[in-house]
Design brief:
2 strands, mainly alpha, extended, 4 helices, about 120 residues, two-stranded antiparallel sheet, 2 domains, about 75% helix
């Protein structure tokens, strides 16, 4: 069976891929909206933190042999601990200042994380 000249299996796989990508983008934008709404900080390092979680999961599975499903739980927890440390040590002092300072700090954190993980 074909739909618009495309086999049904290919159409369903593309539909599923679109739903997965759309849900990923929705989670990413929801995280940005919650952080800006609650903390009033423009978090430029949001994508770098996602990259850090993916890297932790990859290293945990490939190097340490930890189960894939366990790393799907452990990696976000590690990134969350890192985020709490960044918030308590650096970001907290910028809440009363202009948004630009938070943007610059999180941009610097992004550059730092990308440089660290690029060296692996």
């Amino acid at each position: 069976m074909e739909i618009f000249g495309v086999p049904l299996q290919a159409m369903m796989s593309q539909l599923l891929l679109g739903l997965v990508n759309g849900s990923f983008y929705a989670m990413l934008s929801l995280g940005l909206a919650v952080i800006f709404g609650l903390l009033n900080v423009i978090n430029f390092s949001h994508g770098a933190l996602y990259m850090m979680g993916a890297f932790f999961a990859f290293i945990g599975v490939s190097t340490f042999g930890i189960n894939y499903w366990a790393m799907l739980i452990i990696a976000p927890l590690l990134v969350g601990v890192f985020g709490v440390i960044v918030e308590k040590t650096m970001l907290r002092w910028l809440y009363k200042l202009d948004h630009l300072y938070g943007l610059l700090l999180t941009f610097g954190i992004t550059l730092l994380l990308e440089g660290v993980f690029r060296s692996f």
